[in-house]
Design a protein that fits this description.
The complex is a heterotrimer.
Chain A (H helix, E strand, L loop, with lengths): L1 H7 L3 E12 L38 H13 L3 E2 L2 E2 L2 E4 L9 E4 L6 E9 L10 E13 L3 E4 L5 E5 L6 E7 L6 H17 L12 E11 L9 E6 L2 H20 L8 E5 L4 E4 L12 E2 L6 E2 L2 H9 L5 H10 L5 H7 L3 H13 L4 H19 L3 H4 L3 H12 L5 H14 L3 H7 L8 H14 L1 H8 L5 H12 L6 H13 L1
Parallel strand pairs in A: 12-13
Antiparallel strand pairs in A: 1-10, 1-11, 2-6, 3-16, 4-5, 4-15, 6-7, 7-10, 8-9, 11-12, 13-14
Helix pairs in contact in A: 3-4, 6-7, 7-9, 8-11, 9-12, 11-12, 14-16, 14-17, 16-17
Chain B lengths: L4 H7 L4 H12 L7 E4 L2 H16 L10 E5 L26 H8 L3 E6 L19 E2 L2 E5 L5 H8 L5 E6 L5 H7 L2 E4 L19 E6 L2 H11 L31 E5 H4 L7 H16 L3 E5 L7 H16 L18 H12 L2 H14 L4 H25 L2 E5 L15 H6 L5 H6 L3 E8 L5 E7 L5 H19 L4
Parallel strand pairs in B: 2-3, 2-6, 9-10, 9-11
Antiparallel strand pairs in B: 1-3, 4-5, 6-8, 7-8, 7-12, 11-13, 12-13
Chain C lengths: L4 H10 L6 H18 L34 H5 L5 E2 L2 E5 L5
Antiparallel strand pairs in C: 1-2
Classes of the chains: A alpha+beta, B alpha/beta, C mainly alpha.
Chain lengths: 492, 481, 96
Amino acid sequence: MDDLSDILGDEYEAVIGLEVHCQLDTASKLFSGASTKYGAEPNSQVAPLDMGLPGTLPVVNRKAVEYAVRAGLALRCDVRNETKFARKNYFYPDLPKGYQISQHRAPLCENGELVVPIDGDPLGDGDVRRVGIQRLHLEEDAGKSTHLKGQPHSLVDLNRCGVPLIEIVSEPDLRTPAEARAYMKALRDIVVFLDISDGEMSEGSLRCDANVSVRPSGDEAFGTRTELKNINSFKFVHDGIAAEIRRQIELLEAGESVEQETRLYDVDAGRTRPMRSKEESHDYRYFPEPDLPVFTVDKEWIEEIRANLPALPAERRRMYREAWNVGRDDAGVLTGEPALANFFEASVAHWSGDAQTVANWIVNQWLRVLNDTGHTIDEAGVEPGEFVGVVELVEDRVISQNAGQTVLEEMITTGRDAETIVDDEGLRQMTDAGAIESLVDDVLDDNPEQVAEYRGGNNNVLGWFIGQVMQASGGSADPKIVRSLLQEKLDS
Amino acid sequence: MSRDILKELRAGEISSLEVIDAIIEAAQDDVFNAFVSLVDPSELREQARGADRAREAGEARPLEGWPVAIKDNICTRNLTTTAGSKILEDFESPYEATAVQRLRDAGAIVVGKTNLDEFGMGSSSETSHIGPVRNPADPDRVAGGSSGGSAAALAAELALGALGSDTGGSVRQPASHCGVVGLKPTYGRVSRNGLIAYASSLDQIGPMASTVEGCARLFDAIAGHDDRDATSLAVEPAGPGCADVLSEGVDGMTVGLPEEYLGEASRLDPQVRSRVEAAIEALEEAGAETTSVSLPHTEYAVATYYLIATAEASSNLARYDGVRFGRRAEDADDLAELYKKSRAEGFGDEVKRRIILGTYVLSAGYYEAYYEKAQKVRTLIRRDFESAFEEVDALVAPVAPTPAWTLGEKRDDPLEMYLEDIFTTSANLAGIPAMSVPSGTTDQGLPVGTQLLGPALSEPVLFRLAQKIFEQCNDEASGRG
Amino acid sequence: MSIAKTEVEKVARLARLEVEEKRAEKLVDELDSVLEYVGKLDELDTDDVEPTTHPVAAEHTGRDDEVNEGLTVEQVVGHAPDQQDGQFRVPKVVDE
């Protein structure tokens, strides 16, 4: 791996643990009934509790707990039957109550693991790293403060206050920036496939802090760690950690020591720098949240959530490849997004032939049509059954492959069904050999020179003849029949 | 208590408008400083006329036309809610507390917001931003606290019902000092939604009235589960409301007399002792058995209470930072200064003292020694009550060690003031209901209340006992009061 | 246990309270006497005692995920000491 050799050399080993925050895709906030929609006018999605009004009280959103349990189960965690909330106290303008309701001593989930592909093969055929999940707990998000350039002020928007988050804390099991990035991507896939988050790092739905230290290779003891805060893209997960590892190694090489502190990755400079705002020593004064009794997650509920857990990408890839004989790369593409995987699986259920044919159609035709028309699978409004209908028309040679693509496009843009489009657009293939033969005869009769050329040894003329016959049929002749009839007559 | 105006009102012998007019007249110069704010007289008269019409039409709701006063740490629409603090002096809540909404739904008329110790932190109602409440029985004396304004308003007949809040005795002690009835309900029985938090695991809104029946009717109106308060209890005790069981008497009940509250060691003022003993006699005469019980951890209650209450308060009061509402210091250069100065200017000394103590006991290195230790002792105090209630239906105790003291007397020694709560904090720590019922007066005419405590959800039992004491002691005391 | 003045100052910083010099002296004495008093809890052996967070345990099963609350922007920022463009205005926040 490039980062291992480039940055670490043989002498050092990095130790990385990630604290990932993931926004849960609930309609309302974790403790209030305000909307969580992203991108609304500032301070337009604020309930009295979210702005810390006196006398307001939190009430837990049951759906958020369900989503967190889903994530915990997918990460093979133990789920606690009785979970407790705690207050984390600190002052900040985007924290209206002066404390964040989080979990401290009795987190919802603990002791899980995630298996991450680490050799650059995202499909997991190569080496993997088992990353321990120390804990997964629920907490509320803070608001947003925006610094006004050139002014001594910041503006505070509280829309994000109280949006449910899960914090997933890994063990310090990661060793390279690439592994950290792969871990983040694997987590993103999981939360997206579990349908609990949109996993968008660009919108802040997924973000992470990294604990980074280095130590001489072979050492057991950890080096002094720094915390890299607010990482908001997959690229920066890699680049920020790489920069921090490089900085720490340079310090050690120069005989200096690493100071335990909180740092930020400066994207423009490609370096990390210490955070200025956290100069006061932190003392969060955690204590049990008196406004929230113990929250019971009974066994029946956990089992119900487990039973309804959507299959994860790795599991689905395995099924596609092993049970359905789908090619490795196609299986990778098809499990890129849950909507795509769901569409594929539903299509296969409608299809009587081999799954690879459907896979080909989705990967080679359907994705192109979606891209050309600018639609997502859900927006396109074509049901898997309808899609399979088009594939069948092509496979039964009722229409040509190209016509199949046209039909799909027309289905999206006009909403008509496939049969209607085939008829309206005259896309039905001419498969009657007799009718095609008379067209072939006409073309051969009209072009004696080209016939002579072909018979003189120029096989390239065959393509020209096919074109002429297709043109004569108005594009509807089955090209396979045209080709075989032409060859038959020219070679005789 | 020459007249029972509530009874007359319910019987239609006097109109709501007459009652409201008398209150408007009397409240004009609020000599006891009971109110922080009052509703506009024309609006009050309008509501009173509406209540009278409903009564005439035979559509009177349970509290139709009752003028009630609300402690100013309970949120109301259309009136400021200041918690007695400069930091909230102009604060208007965009929503209303569940308990207030339930009073209005039952027909009550909110007349104003009552004075208190800042954020409910005190036992004398001397620390609000508008100055001390005076005791109607003797204006040179405190009304008790922190719900002193609610108690004084009732004693001065400026309201016929009131809401207070009780974190360590703040309903019961002023009720005792002013000669009115006050209940601290079972924790979770009345929604805290809209109550400005002092110490969330101890706070309860409590009803107060001049009579036991009035207090019971208020309680019946405000009690019950609320989806907006996760600590609110879902269990509804079966059977009729508290107001309907008052006449059932106490024959056959067993009442415990805790040694730690009534024994020699409790250093009870002799006059207070004699009134409490009179209350006990009244219960015995009415057919209740009495027996001695022990609550061995009583002496630790005040220390436990102050650790837990200040810790929770330090967190609950962090939101007053001058950013979103309330007072902001003018000359702050940076964020740290904005916070420090706004809070230094906005909070009074006692509030600051408690925030500092609470922050200290939660801070790294002290959590286990102080906060968690207190939470464990809290368990021991709870168990004391649990074993006592295996033997008896309820307990009788004093509310406060002395009658009301003179204004300013204890302002300089916080610890001395804290010890004033010695008989009241245990009920909050254990979450059990407790009430103060007037039991006559001292030789100087100062009211003294007796405290009744029962197991969780035993409010109906407490009201039955209170009714007997109220009938006996106040007939007997009427010549003196 | 006796509390040092520097400790009181540290706690005051943590609680974002400005404490004047002459007030700080008095506060140290007051806190000392309160801490001495609460020290009496040490007389009790609580090793095997569970802490009580909620005096009466309510059963909390949460609420449904419904959007049913929300203030107007005017209600949110209307009473703020300082606001601009529908947002709260505060002295510069660094590193955000």
